[in-house]
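Hey,

The postdoc asked me to send both predictions to you directly instead of through the lab channel. I've kept everything plain text so nothing gets mangled by the mail client. Protein one:
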Amino acid sequence: MQLSISILQIAVALVIFCGPVSQQGMAADEQSSCFADIAETHSYTLGMPSHMTPTQDGKSVLYLRSGPRDTIQRLYEFDVATGTERELITPEQLLQGAGEHLSDEEKARRERQRITVRGFVGFELSRDGAQVLLSLGGRLFSVDRADRRITSLPGAGWIAPHLSPDGKRVAALRDGEVHVI
């Protein structure tokens, strides 16, 4: 029964996004264009903010977002008072031109969680909101929100990093063990 509901949901979504297909149907190029739009935008989810996190003082909201047809997520900050958005940092800025290389363990973790985007897939904000912890390609980075100063934390191959409550330490997994940095 669950399978037929899923097929029905897909059919409804296609009619909503692509329109009904009659016997004459829509032109083949129109239909393939519609399906291409759905595929290229991950069902119109690319470009939508995710992982929205307000700062403790309520003045800003941090979130991840990619372009409408780009799968690389970047970190943005929205200023509530002014209604302005600024790109806080990009994966390219952290890696300084080097590509993102994922370990087999990280690839498997992302596959299990159905994560299909690249770049930043999550972040943590310190309690005071001054620091942002980011993981990229198994490396960890701390970014100061005020001046965008980047601090690379030692080691590589880290997965599932978390800030300590005081924001001075990071716990992360590597080789099946928990480490404190």
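Protein two:
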Amino acid sequence: MNIDPHVSIIIPARNEEAVIGSCLDSLIHLDFPRERFEVILVDNGSSDRTLEVARARSESLHLTILQKSGVRISALRNLGASHSRGRVLAFLDADCLAPSNWLTRGTHVISQPGVGVAGAHYRIPEDSSWVAQAWYGDEVAEKQGPIPWVPGGDLMMARAIFDEVGGFDATIQTNEDCELCDRVREAGYQVIGDPLIAVTHLGTPQTLGGFYRKVVWHATDAVRVFRNKLPRITNVRPLLFGLYTLLCLVGVAAGLGWIVLRQTWAVLAISAVLLVLPSLLLSARLCARRKKWAQLLPLTVLHVAYGLARGRALLGAGTR
């Protein structure tokens, strides 16, 4: 069936057998007219049943499957955009579930004057752990209206603006969504967060270890993006927090040595307090704003883990 889609939904994927079916099923149940959108799945060399599961939905969706191996997620999204026909590009990740009004609401928001990007930070699954609830549970409500960026797994924009700013930067591995939104804002457009566009992220970290690894991964190219975008890029505070954490760890190491040499715990104690204190203060501020003081300890633990992960990413930046 030939269609003239208004929206092209672009989904990058690699070995997403466990979630791609649920993702596509959520698109089948959109309240947007089926003939008004197409779905483009761009596969990065999956070795599992991702493509088989996706093709099983081809009778219910106007689905196109593209394949390109060994590239970054930005290149997958750009490839999907280059093969799309819609006047609106809607980027969705394979481990995300779209609400039924996703396209209806999203296309309305980006049609407003001056809006370049619309999207939302992720909702968490209903059965999420304390890690996900404390760190991610309030993001949708807190990050709305004009904001610096939205994640690439829930991002909509007009094709004309996508082409104007040059699409995603295919040379970076992470931070590509933040970097794109920064260029959109530099071009004079707003980035709008709207809770009604929020998708459920099945890949939300549920353990402390998973959270730490996720932050390290997201920070992989943060230093490079920051260097290229001085002074406008929005990730300076996380970088400084990571640097501060590294300095505190140096103090902790020095304190351990001081115990051996001088039999005094003062340096270690001071360094440990300095390591934890900013996390405690940041967590207290969040708890006061959210009126959820029961989250104070979980958020403090997560802020410390966040600082450690950012510091770990900074150490790795010198090797790239």
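Summary for protein two, as requested: The two ends are 47 Å apart (CA to CA).

Thanks,
C.
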